[in-house]
Amino acid sequence: MNKLIWIVLALLAGAFLPIQAALNSKLGKAINSPAYASMVSFVVGVISIAVYILLSNQNASFSGAKTAPGYVWLAGALGAFYVTVIILSFPRLGPALTFGLVIAGQMSISVLMDHFNIFVTEQHPLNLYRKIKRNQKRKLTKQLLAAGSLVFGVPPVICPSLTSLPRRTCCCTIHFMSRERDTMISSHSCPTSVLHSPI
User: Fold this and answer.
1) In terms of pTM, does the model score above 0.85?
2) Are residues 29 and 87 in the same domain?
3) Which domain holds residue 88?
4) How many percent of the chain have pLDDT more than 90?
């Protein structure tokens, strides 16, 4: 039950991020400065956490800060970078694309941190996908493509050889049809009949 509570809280924290970005973006427009909007956001955050600390009687050992590695202080700078970039990109890219890219970046770095045991208490090597049976890999690939198309708002088109031919013999990779321009975006060339084969 305790774990379920933390799962719900983590889900809520993620759900609040787009709302926070929208509010910060509006504040940036109102004061005509994304950087000042980011600073105001952090000031309000400091006040909020200070109130929480006072109400919950939290204790801290500040002497331990002397033994902490110097790079831990970069966390605040990374937070400022994140908030400022989100304020700038949110009105230009929209919530879906902005946070789709945020999630992609988070998952990529998180997997690497788990695999190479960076800043984690327990290592989790990346081997899950290797254990999945071949037919399950094909199904998972289609599901990931469908999820990606929903996030980024473009219908996925996939080479049939990705699911019908042995590994490393696929003649092309994943393709996405651009809605703004009726053209195919591709990293490899494929026959026309292959390009327009839907999932």
Assistant:
1) no
2) yes
3) 2-58+69-98
4) 38
